[in-house]
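Posted in: Structural Biology > Protein-Ligand Complexes

Title: Requesting predicted complex, adenosine-5'-triphosphate in pocket

I'd be grateful if someone could produce the 3D structure tokens for the following input. Sequence and ligand are given below.
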Amino acid sequence: MLTVKDLKIEFFDHELPEVAVKDVDFTINDGEILGIVGESGSGKSMTAMAIAGLLNRKDLTKSGSIDLDGVDLLNSSRKEIRAIQGNEIGFVFQDPLNSMNPVLKVGPQVEEAMRIRKKSLGLSKEDMKARALELMKSVGLEDAERIYDSYPHQISGGQRQRAMIAAALVLKPKLLICDEPTTALDVTVQKKIIDVLKELNRETGTSILFISHDLSVIKALCDKVVVMKDGLVVEEGSVKEIFENPKNDYTRQLIF
Amino acid sequence: MGKYIIKKLILLIITLLITSFVIFLIFELVPGDPAVDKLGTRATPEAVEALRVKWGLDKPFILRYFQFVTSVFTLDFGVSYTYGISVSNLLKEKMVINLFLSVMSLMIVVVVSFPLGVYVAKHTGGLIDKIMIPLNQTAMSIPSFVLGLLITFLFGMVFKLFRPGGYVSYKADFGGFLYFLIFPAVALAIPKIAMCIRLLRGNILEEADKDYSLTAYARGNNTTGLLYRHVLKNAVMPTITFIGMIAADMICSGIVIEQVFSIPGLGQMLISSISTRDFPVVEAEVLMIALFIMVISFITDVIHAILDPRVRI
Ligand SMILES: Nc1ncnc2c1ncn2[C@@H]1O[C@H](COP(=O)(O)OP(=O)(O)OP(=O)(O)O)[C@@H](O)[C@H]1O
Ligand SMILES: [Mg+2]
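-- Reply #1 --
Done. Output follows.
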């Protein structure tokens, strides 16, 4: 479904060009959960943002290809990529407080991917609200109605992250990208969020790209793992292979 | 929201009480006796005492202060020492002129700087943006009274859009009055417009760089959608606060601008009443200016609360 080939991202806003990501290759099949692990600065977020078409910036160059069912996400026009963003790819960021707009209510933010396409989808206000509430409940927001009408600062961190997951899922994307979605949350909430993602994957078959530097989370959730260091993929394989028989020194360091 | 407004109103009243007390106290502490000043040192003590009674200066301080505070509502500020007529009659027209001048100028600032600020932020690095940067810098560094002279020369003398020095009273011709005020209002507004554009542009770019903007892009927003649905509401708040602060300066610069355009506003009266120690007039003027500034800042607080749910507590 998703194939990343020879991805290279280079910053040139400093005197010397700085390679953030290099020679990254991996695939995610339908219904698969792929984890990316690696230390801070290893290029995990850059890889995720490249897939989500969020590297439309002037201070970097990117090369290689990212193929999502026949569309090259790295080299297509902004318009083509916009049609995919929020629609076929959902993105959940690390910090649920900062990734929500503080002056908009939660409900409209959850609905936004629908609202942007409301004409072509033929959705009414009520349809969108019903869909948003349904999803918010499905990710474990019991009092979805109240949260729908709350502002981000009025709900807890865990509720915010659940709402952000709901927001990423409103249009039933093929791929959900989660960039360290639980780092800002405490351990019990973290576990519940992982359960939500697992269940989502089991019930809807949505593929997930899950980024974390916490191996226990990866082990609990993912089918496959990509280990990154200094912008390079150092090892790749199924969770079983990597955890039982790590080949690379760095991977071994991470595990033990 | 209602609670917030009430809280701000109470704060406004407290501020008004403190400000008025300070104003009143200052003029109380100024050495010298206004009655002696008026009558001269050779006046008999009886005559001086009679005048003090007439002006109410024999009453205790607290009582006179109380009268002063309530005069905000009754608009009765007593009698001018110099002219012998009521202060309200003396100042009414001048207050109206300055109120219209300041409000008009603030409106010009808002109407011009918001669209332009948004435009240059949206087209950063574009031609207009490149032209605006030095233009803004220039506009910011020219004092309003110089702009006033420039406008008088250009629009008054070259294009003949108005008659320099030809102030029209609002009682005689309200339309003509407003038309004449446009020119000094623009002179007052230009430096502030430049500042607001720069502030707004910077804030929009800053907000567009925040995490929530990236999230909005990840949902398929285009730049326009991001700007209007997400960024703008966050980005205008510092500019609105700034416009509230400009209000104070509008009055002060306005006093100079009046001279340039020969408008019989508060400025001349303020200067002459200070030099003749006409305290009731000075006190009334200062209090009304303070009130104007407080009301503007109250309005910006309310707009702030409408835009940002986090301050509405
Ligand atoms: N604006 C930038 N200019 C230059 N280099 C950058 C910039 N942003 C990121 N980088 C570089 O890109 C590299 C990869 O960063 P990335 O954010 O992908 O790391 P990460 O693996 O997600 O780390 P973390 O776990 O801390 O989130 C880093 O080495 C960083 O120095
Ligand atoms: Mg990261």
